[in-house]
Design goal:
With 251 residues, the protein is an alpha/beta fold. Helices cover 24% and strands 24% of the residues.
Length: 251
């Protein structure tokens, strides 16, 4: 079963998003997922999200947006999220997918898992990126300070970071140079808090949703958003783009 078409990845999709707080491992996570989970036999990709330091899942418009487009998102409520908590989110979601009688039994796709986060959550994503269940990562204003984690990247990754006013900018630049996997690196004209600002969050949300549509849902039509000198984001004056070659085919 294919996924409903989306004409604008910055807008809600055809699923009604549900937010469930006090859920997940130890009831200290927030879930974002379609109300019609499993509709028409679909199995929904799993995303573990990491907040930036001092932030909580409710601050990110990106997460309900992704739920409306068909994803199951699990986010630790900890304002100082750890990579262990992000990994536990994946563990829990996959276990719930296998638990007969549970709300999520047979409705999630354990072969399509992403890790992503902002700032501290991006650092957590680097730390768990070698997990064999993860097929793509997204890093928002979160360049690695400890470069030993960059080789953990095993699959295509997207880096969305601010301009030099973003405190993570220099580390984003060096992460791109050090990465050994295909990377799309987009720089937006804003600071470290772009993902939670009204000025830049819509653009970051849209780019992230498009990337996940390509890498998790296998929609090859979205590849031209990121691939080649004439890619859509390359021609968008909002973004400054660097690319490390990757195949245009979906995973």
């Amino acid at each position: 079963m294919g996924w409903p078409a989306i004409s604008d990845f910055g807008m809600n999709g055809s699923f009604k998003p549900i937010t469930k707080t006090s859920s997940g491992p130890m009831n200290v996570y927030t879930l974002f997922y379609p109300e019609e989970l499993g509709r028409d036999g679909r199995k929904h990709p799993i995303i573990t999200w990491g907040n930036g330091a001092t932030s909580t899942p409710d601050q990110f418009t990106l997460l309900p947006l992704l739920a409306s487009q068909g994803y199951f998102v699990i986010a630790a409520n900890n304002a100082f999220v750890t990579s262990a908590e992000m990994k536990s989110g994946i563990d829990w979601a996959i276990a719930e997918n296998e638990r007969q009688g549970g709300d999520f039994f047979g409705k999630l796709d354990p072969t399509k898992v992403a890790s992503m986060g902002w700032s501290l959550g991006s650092l957590g994503t680097f730390e768990i990126a070698a997990d064999p269940r993860i097929v793509t990562t997204v890093h928002i204003s979160g360049g690695a300070m400890d470069k030993s984690v960059v080789p953990n990247l095993r699959h295509p990754a997207a880096f969305f970071c601010g301009d030099p006013s973003d405190i993570a900018h220099d580390n984003c630049e060096s992460d791109f140079e050090l990465a050994k996997v295909p990377v799309f690196y987009g720089v937006f004209p804003g600071d470290h808090f772009g993902i939670v600002s009204t000025n830049f969050a819509p653009q970051i949300n849209k780019a992230t949703a498009a990337w996940l549509r390509w890498r998790l849902m296998g929609d090859a039509s979205v590849a031209n958003t990121f691939v080649g000198a004439d890619c859509e984001l390359c021609k968008d004056m909002t973004w400054t783009v660097k690319q490390r070659d990757f195949d245009t085919a979906p995973p």
